[in-house]
Amino acid sequence: MAKGYVFMLVKLETRKLLLPALISGIIYAVLGLVTGVLTLGLSDPDSTHWAARQIYEWTADLMMVSMSCGLGFVFTKDYLSYYRTDAFSRKLAFYRKLPVTDKEIVTARFLVFLATLLPMALCFFALFYLPVRIEQLATGVEFTQAAVMWLGLSLAGGAGFLFLEMGFSGKMYLLLSLVVVVIFLAAIAILNLSGIHLVSGSLSLVRDYGIWPSLAVVAVGAAVAWGTAPLIIRRVASRNLI
What we know:
By secondary structure, the protein is mostly helical.
């Protein structure tokens, strides 16, 4: 694999990304603040508000899972119209005309994903922390450790959505994404009804065990992303983009 070709593809991927990245950072920051405000309901110990607390827990968990899986993506115009224009398939078809391999195409996309993930995560979690800090739901160290844990989900979930983005047509990508959303809704509802709450649970884990759960989740997320990459390469290689 030629590094020069990979960085050429990265440059192509990011040449018009500055303004969308700034807008995306603002959007993620606002959503982080909203998610943080939702956690304020978790600090109410009054059992008479059980129903309201369940709604807060479920909504906060859904926001966290959804945002964590999306932090490696920038809101470009392609994501607003891919189901109609099949923009990602057309981009792959263009790359196929260049002297690059499918592995180099996928590697470049992963590099852009990782380069996007860190600043978007910073925007999201920085604003998320404000309400948490005000209500003293967690110390700065505890919150940082919990954020690292959620980055593990970002690696795994983001790799999964890259598989959908690069492996299927725009219409199928939309359909499969909706299926994933339904699965998220059902899984979070089941977990909450079973007494398992992801946001408060992640804070409890780092409060009890320190950084180790976070490192374990990041390791699992990295392993999932690493294992997904060859699947994406094979899927891209099998696609007929003519």
